[in-house]
Specification:
The chain has about 170 residues and is α+β, with helices and mostly antiparallel strands. Helix content is about 45%, strand content about 25%.
């Protein structure tokens, strides 16, 4: 990964306005964040972090594509999500200070915006309202993801029950 901020490449308040994570934040807060947050350029195949790592950073996809991988009990990485421009990941480690719950790898040339715990603390000190909106936007996305996961689990459970019923019905005739 290359820290593109070192090369004078930064993000603009206008770009942040287009990302749901920053929804409803006032322009002055966006301008401050645009000045303070750093960007990373990522090559295809680069691992951003590994399941079990500890960190105090989250990432916003400014451009590119990433896969989220979850390690199974058999030691096999399974893709559980694809992320693209405007999506974000790694927020759980900032909120609950636990090890990473999955691995994330780049699938294309990409650019990430890095948000650290220190960045969020600074936002809190400067502008509690913007901080609250930011955290609310994270919570809304986590809720949306949970709803999707609930739907997937319900379909999987129903499919498994159907398979068991079909096998029992088939073996009794």
């Amino acid at each position: 990964m290359v820290d593109s901020t070192a090369f004078g490449v930064t993000v603009t308040a206008g770009a942040l306005e287009q990302i749901g994570l920053f929804g409803a934040l006032e322009r002055i807060a966006l301008e401050s964040l645009a000045r303070s947050l750093r960007c990373l350029d990522v090559a295809p195949g680069e691992l951003i972090f590994r399941e079990g790592d500890t960190s105090s950073e989250m990432y916003v996809v400014l451009h590119g594509e990433f896969e989220v991988l979850k390690n199974s009990k058999r030691g096999v990485d399974t893709r559980v999500a694809l992320l693209g421009t405007g999506d974000w990941f790694g927020e759980m480690s900032i909120l609950d200070v636990q090890p990473r719950s999955a691995s994330v790898r780049s699938l294309a040339v990409s650019r990430l915006l890095v948000i650290t715990t220190a960045d969020l603390e600074a936002l809190y000190r400067r502008d509690v309202k913007s901080y609250s909106l930011f955290v609310l936007n994270v919570a809304r996305e986590l809720s949306r993801r949970l709803r999707v996961t609930d739907g997937i689990l319900a379909e999987l459970a129903a499919s498994m029950v159907d398979d068991v019923v079909a096998k029992r019905h088939g073996s009794s005739t």
